[in-house]
Amino acid sequence: MTMDPDLHNTNTVFVEVPVTPNPNAEASAPVPEQETKDKVGHSPSGSISSVSSSESTEKLIKSLSMGKLDINKDDEPPLEPFTVSPIQPASPSVSSLLPKANNTPKPIKFTVRKVSRDTIALPETGKAQNKEREYAYGNLPENREKAKERKSAEKMSQLQYSQAKYDQYAARIEKINKEVNFLTNLLPPYNVEIDYVTRTKITKAIEKLRMKQDEIEKKKYSLGISISRLWREHDENEIFVRSVSGEIDSAPLTRHSTNVSELSRILTGLRDDYEQDAAEFELYKSRPVPEEALIEQLELVSPKSERDDILEKLEQDDHPIDGAFAFWQAVLAMLMVFSTWGANAAFGVFLNYYLTTNSFPGATQYDFALMGGVIVFLAQILAPMTVLLVRIFGQTPVHLTGICLQTLGYFLAAECTKLWQVFLCEGVLVGFSFSLIFIPGTLVLPTWFDKQRATAMGIAVAGAGLGGLVFSLSLNKIIQETGDQRWALRMVGFITLAVSLFGGTFLRVRTPKKSKFKDRFNKDFIIKNFKIVFDFRCFDNYPIITVGVWFGVVLIGYIIILYSFSSFATSIGLSHTQGSNILAILNASQVVGRPLIGNIGDFTGRANTSVAISIYVIILIFAFWFNTTTYPALIVLSVLMGSAVGVGSTMAQALAGDVLAKMGRHEKLPAAWGGLNIIVSCFCLPAEVIALKLRRPHSNHAYAHTQIFTGCCFLMGLILMLVCREWLVRKTFESRRSQAQETLNSRHNMHLRRQETPEVEDDEEKDNDQLLQARVERYDRLLGGLLIYFIIRMFYPLRV
């Protein structure tokens, strides 16, 4: 059907239906208007009945759907007329229900994303179409000059803003340096009146300032690189992306984020932790030693007159901190250790003599071994009590008392004829004297040193190895010439008397106490000092107990090696002289090894050093000592073993300080120091007895079981230290995660003022936020509660 265009003015509705052409039929003539009106039934009123419309529509749709509509059929009944009521809404248009043949193409919508500045080229030739269209709209010569000037102005403005920001960073760093210097001057040794709690708060404040300074330094460095890049761009020396036509594109090369591999993410995390370790290194290195913390805590309960005298003495003192006189005091403290632990290091010579001779009838080998254990037991367990005696009576009376007991013990032991007599003299009296002699010396050193404190303590503890070297060689020579141990004991008494008197005469406290004796010898003063030293509430957690047990187990192995090396040499066919030489070499190696272990621990982490040394000693015991049968091999073993076997006494107190620092309980360090001495004394008492009990005298390998037990002691110590290390690493992760999250929260809550050209600052802040967010996510993973994360934290490369 077709629709006459003249009928548009009428109200008659026509339907245009696409018709398939019939080649056999003739072309249909157009239908006259009047005839069409008669067929359709045009109503003058201009309306169609709604009822008829509904019925007609249904019929029409049905005929169309059945494919029966054919205009060539003459017998098709005409459509029934229908009208639209002016009152009721019209029914849907019939034409809208029929398919429309619309061949008009739809318009294509597009959006201009970028205006090309390259030359417009023809697809066929690749050349420009004409001179008028050689440049795009934004690349016209006059527009290019304006854009270049505008871009140059923008870069200059950005440079000025970045340079101002760089100067602000430099000013903030200088301000932080002044604040750190001011706070440092409030700490000892510049100010000894400050209490330990306040000192801890100031130390934490310095730590935060240092970390803030490091963060600003990183920003300053990053901003400096950005400024350098902007200057190069301003001078048109930057590398640009070049177009095909050789023109310079104005946009420099940019970075795009890519997918980071798992290995790269791990390496990035390790590098981030390494940078944080470097930032915290100075605080870690300057952490106070137990003796220093003990002095500071005890000064809190000193009478006011005593503190005034200390401040007056500091003002008049002409000997600087870390100076030559301070190192002279370290040498004197080494002489105190030489007279005590150095002389005890040569006890293996006496033990070897007692085991191979019948000097005291009825005595067993276990009696002599127990005597050596008693010396170490009393020296360790009485150390905290000696501190109280020094506080009450002063350094000199306590020191002289110790010298008298030691000299009396050695001289009386030379005259003893029964076992209980030599046990009382050489065991009990000498053990009592040890703590009274060396404790005052170790308490003096922290008052003279600040930056070189670790070196000074290393010099002092080196006296143990030096004394072992001297006494091991001389005692064996005297025993061989005299035939017994009597003159050897007298010689030890003479040497220790002379050395101890010399050291005690020139050893001087930097802050001498002038308070009256009645102010110190009273109930309140004694109780306050007793609570400081014997406050065992610091042992209410497993890490500090782990350190104590580790110290005890490792010290058992140390005592067995120290007391058994000489007798082991004779068991494999060597002479007594060779056995004493082996022991001397072992002690000489400690002179170098102990200070070296302390310095390595300060740089690489004390727990890390303890783990590494434990593994090293285990390898030496099972792989070297177990298979040693010749004198040269035993000499090499003595050198290697002596440099590391004293790791327990070198690192235990420092490890306790690290654990308490992670717990935020620095003030408990003196109590931890006293508690560790008490714990380890219980391990020292049966150490050599166990070693001799495991010995098989009639076997070809008499010390095989002893060697296995010693190796197991260090293996147990390794396991305990790994557990302690896991705790230290976990606490470090928790602290760093909390700090990173706190920084992120503060940045999110901060309303930054926007500048006109904030691109550099925005990129910098975005990078820092991404770094902190990645740090938080990494620590969340590493702090997982699964066993695999526990093992990862044990071996995670971190300075702890």
TrEMBL record:
Spans traversing the lipid bilayer: 326-356, 368-392, 398-416, 428-449, 455-475, 487-507, 544-565, 607-626, 632-657, 669-692, 704-728, 782-798
Please list the residue ranges that the record marks as compositionally biased, kind Acidic residues.
Answer: 758-767
Biased composition annotated in UniProt, kind: Low complexity = 43-55
Query: How does this chain sit within the bilayer?
Result: Multi-pass membrane protein
Q: Which UniProt keywords apply?
A: Coiled coil, Membrane, Transmembrane, Transmembrane helix
- Cited Gene3D superfamilies: MFS general substrate transporter like domains (1.20.1250.20)
Q: Which CDD domains does the UniProt record give? A: MFS_MCT_SLC16
The record's principal subcellular location, in a coarse class, is membrane
- Compartment(s): Membrane
Q: What are the record's GO terms for cellular component?
A: membrane
Chain segments carrying region Disordered:
1-59, 740-767
Name the coiled-coil region(s). Answer: 166-219
GO terms (molecular function) for this protein are: transmembrane transporter activity
Q: What top-level branch of life does the organism fall under?
A: Eukaryota
The record, for Pfam families, names:
MFS_1 (PF07690)
Query: What family does the entry list?
Result: Belongs to the major facilitator superfamily. Monocarboxylate porter (TC 2.A.1.13) family.
The name this protein goes by in its record = CIC11C00000005607
Q: Which organism is it from?
A: Sungouiella intermedia
